[in-house]
Write a structure and sequence with these properties.
Blueprint (H helix, E strand, L loop, with lengths): L19 H17 L7 H12 L4 E2 L2 E2 L6 H4 L20
The protein binds iron/sulfur cluster.
The site of iron/sulfur cluster has 11 residues, from α2.
Length: 95
């Protein structure tokens, strides 16, 4: 080994998204909660705050959460959606 350029190659990413049936169940349940909440979205500030938490989270892979399998850019918008690890700050805009 020359010691150059190997950073990252030996890192093993152990997190995997849930199985497809589990992802489908998570999506169906989240959408039902979103519709029941009137399809409301969070404020721009709340959205940014959620994604900042995801940025610092080990479960994030690109735009995806390995814990639930959801697309974070969409998931972070819905007021009824929640972080499976409860890392997001509770929403203040509940009117
Ligand atoms: S939704 Fe929660 S668990 Fe998933 S990446 Fe964001 S902070 Fe991490």
């Amino acid at each position: 080994m020359n010691g150059k350029g190997n950073e990252g190659r030996n890192q093993v990413q152990t997190s995997r998204p849930p199985s497809l049936p589990r992802q489908a169940w998570n999506l169906a349940r989240a959408l039902a909660e979103f519709v029941a909440d009137g399809c409301r979205t969070v404020t721009a500030e709340e959205y940014r705050g959620r994604l900042e938490m995801c940025d610092a989270c080990d479960e994030r892979r690109g735009n995806r959460c390995m814990k639930c399998g959801c697309r974070l850019s969409l998931k972070a918008r819905g007021r009824a959606f929640h972080c499976p690890l409860e890392k997001w700050v509770p929403i203040q805009s509940l009117c």
